Structures are given as C-alpha cells and as structure tokens.
Task: structure prediction
Amino acid sequence: MRVFAGYLTVISVMLIFFTTLFFTTDEFNKVQSFQKELEHAVSTDTIDLNKTSLLLDQNGRVFSEVNRPYRLYVPDEKIPPFMKDILVASEDQHFYEHVGFDAGAILRAVVKNLVFTHIQQGGSTITQQLARNLYLGQEKTYNRKLTELFYAREIEKSLSKDEILELYLNVIYFSNGVYGIETAAHYYFQKSVTELNQAEMAFIASIPNNPGKYDPLRHFDQTKIRQERLLDILVTTSKLSKEQAETIKQVPIVLNIRKKTDLYPDYAFYVENELRELISIHEGFRVELDNAASPEEKDRIAAKLEKRLQEVISSGVRIQTALNPDLQQKSVLALNGQLQEDLEGATVTIHNESRTIVAMSGGMNYKKYNFHHAFQAYRQPGSAIKPLLVYGPYMEKYKASITDRINANRYCIADYCPVNYGGTQPGSVTLAQSMSQSYNGSSLRMMEKVGIEESFQYLSPFSFNKVISDDKTYASSVGGFTYGMSPLELTDAYTSFIDGNYRKSHAIIHVKDTNGKILYQWKDEPKRIWSKDTTSKVRKMLSQAASSGTGRAAYVQKPYVGIKTGTTNHYHDYWVMGLTDAYTTGVWVGHDTPRNMSHIEQQRPSHKIWKQIME
Result:
C-alpha cells in the first residue's frame, strides 16, 4: 500500500510540474531559451575528453606519458562486443530501447528515495551517466537530476546509440584515478581491452557501479562477487549459457597493476618541445611569428601556439620517436659517471642514415622539465667550429689537398692575435696536421683567405638560432661567438660530414591520432653543403685527429671514427664532436656560470663521455 501511494504521489507531482512548466508563458520562453543553450552544449563539436598522449621509442614501446589524468581512448570498433554486453546488462538493460531516460526506473528510484527520505537510488541510464560525466558532475539533488534528463534527451538526439556507448565506455570511472575501459585494461592487467579474456572484462566491468566498494586493490573479493553476479545477469538476458558463465567464473583473475611510465626524462622533455616546433611549422604559427610586427603581437601568437599544443596533447596522440633505449641509458650513465663536483654537461647522438636523434642527455642527474643543457644551453664552440666555418669552406674554395702546407704560427689581423694552445709555434704544417692539433694561427689565415662573409655562408643552412651578424669577425675562426651554439645544434651540423648533405635532425618520426591517422611528420629535404671531394678530405682529417690528434683520448675501434675537440678561452667549455660509421655524437662539459676548468683538463671528462657512449 505504501509503495502504491508513492507511485501515485510521484505521478501527480510530475504531472503538476510539467503542466505548470509548459503552460505558463514566461516559463515556456525560458524553456525555449534553455533548449537552445542545451543544443549548443551537447553538440558533438563541444565534446572534448582529456586524454593521455604517449611517447614511443624506436621499437614502438611507450616510454613516457604526457597529460593527466591518465586516459587512453578506444574507438567503438575496437571495443569487444562482450564488454559492451556486460556493461549494458549491468548498468542499463533497456539502453537500446529508451530515449535517454527510463521512466519506469525513475519512478522506482523516486519511490525508494521517498521511503528513505533522501536520494539512495538514481535510476540513471547510460545516457544520463554520460551526461553527468561530460557536463554536470556528481552532485545528488533533484534539480540536478532533472537537468540530467534534459541533457540525456539532447544527447540521444545528437548521437547514435553506438556513439553514446563509445563515449560512455571512455569516460566512466574505474577507481584509482582510472577513466575509461582501455585505461582500466592497461592499469589493472597491462593489456589492451582487445587482449582481455571474458573473465577479466567482466571483472573490470564490475567497478563503475560503485568504484569505492568495488575497488580491486582494496576489495578484490567484493569485485569478484560482483563479477559473478554480472555473469549471471548475462545468463538471464540470454547473452551467455549457464555453462559458459560457470566456465568464465572459474578463470583466475591475476591483477598486474601498471605503474606510471615516465622513462628517459632528458629525451621526453625534448620531444615535447620538438612537438611544439612541429605544430608551429605545420599550422602556420612559425610564419606568423616571423612576420609579427611587435613583441606584443609575437606574444599573442606564442600564446595561441601554446594553446594549440595543449589541445593536441589532450587529444591523446601517439608520438613515434627515434629513441634508442640502450644508447639513451649509456649516454646518461656516461655523463653522470664522468661529471664531478658541480660540473654540468650534455650529449646528443644522431643516427647517420636516418638523421634522427636517438639519444640525448640534458644534464647531471637530469630531472624532467629542468633546464636542458642539450638544446637550451648556448655556449662558445671553441675549435669545434673549425671544420664547419674554416676547413670546409677553405677546401671548397681552393680545392686544397690535406697534405697542402700552411703556416700555423701565431698570426695577427689588426689587434686580433690568437695564440696556439701552450703558445706553440709549429711553423709550416699540413692541413691535416693543422686540424689534428687544432692550431689557431693556421685557422685564422684560412678564414682571411676565404673571407668572413663567404665563410659564414656555409653556416647559414644549419640550425644555429643564435648566430648573429655581430659574430662575423675573425674571432669566430677559433670559436669566438656572441652567444654560441647548443650541443644539439653543433652535433646536428656535424652530420653534414656524413655524406656532404644536411637535413635537420629530429626526434619525432610522426604523430598519430587515436585512430592511427598521421597528423604531423617532418618533411625536411636534404641540402648539399659540401662537395664529395671536400667531404672526403674533412673526414680524413677528422679521422687523423681522432687517432693521433686532440681527439685520441676518445678514440674507439670502429670502421670509421672522426673527432674534433674544442676548448674555449679560460677553459670554460670542453667539447668533443665526432662521427663513427653509424652515429654522430656531440658532448659538452662546463658550468652553468662559466668558470675556469683547467684543473680537470688532463682528466678529459668530455673525451671519456664520448668514448663510453660510442664504444
């Protein structure tokens, strides 16, 4: 009798409410206005799930996650039918029949809530739950429940049942900060949802009904009981036979909890920055920034670019990189193992054939998002610039042989008089000896013969962002620049000595959306910098410098090894730049605030780091 009275009460209240709502002129107008806002609010264009983007190494393995909360998205066609069946049976058996809400379920819920004097049961359909998760939050009040009905109805008008179920399965909460069915599969079993067996699917499908009560980490037994109850429901709805259900119940559930993946922070941070550059070029931000008429306009464009970057990251892209995990670990171990006191350093390794960045270390015991010395630190290059700015241009212009001789004694142009290391006066030497011993006198003479402007033309194709017109002085012949180069920039330029061609090196291979469509990839074309003759000669000189010159402390046994070192004034920076038959690697060692390091010169930290990486 009490339940019957409850039903009568509910029906009466609802009739009075809707009659008053729709037949009062002012209220009718408000409803019309609300309806327009509602249609805009639930437009498919406004649905924007915050998803996790993944960074993949060269083997296709995830090594870092970008964006929080952790959420992987799975499209409808990849969701197993069994998973759909069990969640529909569990949460909303009339999902394919109703128009967004189930009147019978609502009446039953209201009656029960009246009996208990507060909201105990929601009677919510899958569509209502989706509306709540996308737009309304989890507040339990009658006003919010009524708004939920309007949203659910509009969702049903805007989306198909399959689209609604796809969204629902990607937004519902699975406890422990896990959202969406694919994320749950990875978190609890370290598998894709397509790889789960039916017992595992039923197990995680048990969680969303009450994520606290059915948290598998705290209440495994409760979750298992509900799993079996859901399998029984599938039997009553003829989705499973009783024998099938009993067989599934007997399958052991072994959790394999996934920990956050955040490996190789040096490399991951650089990839995020390279993604910004990639988007900037592909979507026209770079051109806008270059043409900005004022600093204020440039700031506005930069803000738009940053917003776009976050949109891409939040869309759950998969960023395929060239990362070689073994070389990355070797690079970090080498740097951290050789640096002492408060020294800093950086390394970059580029694969010769593909011109991709396969490893990178950003500093001593580098922590993600800290200052990254490999691409953010700009330092004087010292003699490491000579093959690019002096020897290469000289060979190109005069077709000189590496056995041609040149005076390497101290030489002055006006008031500029660089001295050789140790003050030596070697006299006439071959060009190969000049590079091998890195004499400054011969370097200055060569630049004078080529000419400053012509020498600098050979630097223009490279990605030296802070080389400016004020750098065009004779001091540049021995590495004197206003700002200098980053380790990445200098290593990248050395790849031109692989075969005479230059194509800017990148870490990112391509960026794909959740459906596997390529959104971005680099399209740089190679440029011819050095003739074959010059390339061959420079490689021979670098090889001699590696075996018997300033690079011999870094020498390794390879089919080809070529090395050029650099030491700046007052021993502020140590560089080793070199190539093997497979890789080009650059090493920088110094301090954040430059100071004299002559006391560690004989320890050759940069040489040892390079050798340890390349052995």
The chain has a mean pLDDT of 88. The longest strand covers residues 344-351. The domain at 377-507+527-546 is CATH 3.40.710.10 (Beta-lactamase).
